[in-house]
Amino acid sequence: MSRRFAVLTALAAVCAALELVAGRGMSPATAWDVLGGGGDATERHILLQLRLPRLLVALGAGASLAVAGLVLQSALRNPLAGPEVTGVTPGAVLGAVTATALGLAGWDSPLAVVLAACAGGCTGAALLWLLAGRGRGDPAATAVHGVLVSAVLGGLTAMVLLVEPGELGSVVQWLVGTTEGRVWQHWHLLWPWALLWGTAAWLLAGPLTLLRCGDETALAAGLPARRARTLALLCAVALTAGAVAAVGALGFVGLLVPHLAVALFGADLRVGLPGAAVVGAVVVCGADAVAQLSSRLLAAALETGGLTLPVGALTACLGAVLLLAVVRRTPDRTF
Asked: 28: domain CATH number?
């Protein structure tokens, strides 16, 4: 296990270095020169005030979504459960889109948009709670209600865009998911939230491991399954809301990264949850680096300087392919 953590940590370092030098505005050679202490004021600003916080936000958001997804799949005993099943992702997107598109009370700072996204995410979770409460914590009923809540919130987001169609360009980042334009304020808002709820999720690793084996096994071991599941869902909701508030809806990260983590680290979540955090950070950081490199190549080929490929587009395309593989492997199982 320690060897796998070491390999993943090294891979994360490689992805981080690649992302720092892959962006637009200066060449990779110049970026390495700035990292060595050289460069002028503008180059240092690009690297230290734009690229570095973007990198850290990508790492933090990827880790948060991966941990949230693994917690959800364990608590609901469903390998196809992801942050979207709670309604938190579409709720957070709705909050951010509403605040940005309608310009509510000058909501144009990172803090204001993050607060709006968190409020929307909590609203989605509250709607799920009201609906699924009658199901007495049944995992299948919770997943079905989550899909319904997500559909309703997605429809409301579309209605907001119909009211303000001219703002589509400014809010598409929340619909697709991107790290473009993330600054230190986003990072300072994300990391304490992710650390708090990530630690809470890790403290629930033992109960979650029992829940993966079924409620009967958990009850036989003396674990109150419904209470443990409620606490786990709360952690997943909070982690998802924080990540989506920072980078938007990154498709399939919270759904598929947990499968990679379990394959690498096993079903013991005391190891699996930290492993999922590292894998999620590597996936999002690596995808963002590839997105930046692809944007530079496409911009050069098309002779345009304003082309930006959002990282959410890459994770969605890759995730769709991997999701088909997961479904084919588990067509008749709920876990």
From this structure: 1.10.3470.10
Q: Please tell me whether residue 59 adopts helix, strand or coil conformation.
A: helix
Best CA proximity match to 283, nearest among 301, 260, 262, 309: 260
DSSP 177: -
Angle at 100 between CA 63 and CA 241, to 5 degrees: 25
Number of domains in the chain: 1
The HSE-up count of residue 134 (CA atoms within 13 Å, CB side) is 5
* Contact yes or no for 332/268 (Cβ under 8 A): no
| Residue 309 token pair | 């490929």
Which letter does DSSP use for residue 41 in this model? H
Whole-number Å distance between alpha carbons of 326 and 79: 8
pTM for the model: 0.87
Environment class of 41 (CB within 10 Å of its CB; exposed 0-12, middle 13-18, buried 19+): exposed
Answer whether 170's CB lies under 8 Å from 96's CB: no
Would 335 be classed as within a structural domain?
no
Q: Which residues span the domain enclosing 26?
A: 2-329
Residue 79, φ and ψ in degrees, nearest 5:
-70, -15
Enumerate residue ranges in the chain where pLDDT < 70.
Answer: 1, 103-110, 133-140, 164-170, 299, 302-307, 326-327, 329-335
